[in-house]
Prior knowledge:
The complex is a heterodimer.
Chain A: H1 14-20, H2 31-37
Chain B: E1 10-14, H1 22-29, E2 35-39, E3 53-57, H2 60-70, E4 75-76, E5 79-80, E6 82-85
Amino acid sequence: EVKLREMKPGMLSQELKDALGMPEGAPPPWLINMQRYGPPPSYPSLKIPGLNAPIPHGALFGYHPGGWGKPPVDDQG
Amino acid sequence: MSGNQARSRTVYIGNLDERVTDRVLYDILIQAGRVVDLIIPKDRETDRPKGFAFAEYESEEIADYAIRLFSGLVTLYNRTLRFGFSGQDKSSSSTS
Lengths: 77, 96
């Protein structure tokens, strides 16, 4: 059994980024699915870059490698 | 994907490289929701991880969300992790 820690979702440790092979400034691989399925139901108030918070400076939306997927839309769609 | 698996709060994670640490796996899993329990079984004789894990979330809904969120997208040490319902909930009604 693993000792459970209070970790912050939305924030990825450097160890985790390295393990996932995420380049600097790239989104986590599951961001595309968060944009599709919605934010995690457990964390209604969490701000997630690319979902309901700005993406890092210099990052771009799109589906190219390192892209941040679907740009947010407003109430009008 | 098998749609026949019983829904449960517990997610099976497979195709784990033995270098994947508890911490890295936990940090991934909590991105989908709070993890109530995480078990990474080890071989009793070699003390090496068996290559799979079980994560219990707070509800079936969140387990389902985690499976959809991560499936096919999480690759560690060149191995893409597999996610599915484990059907091993203590509380869920079993076939017995």
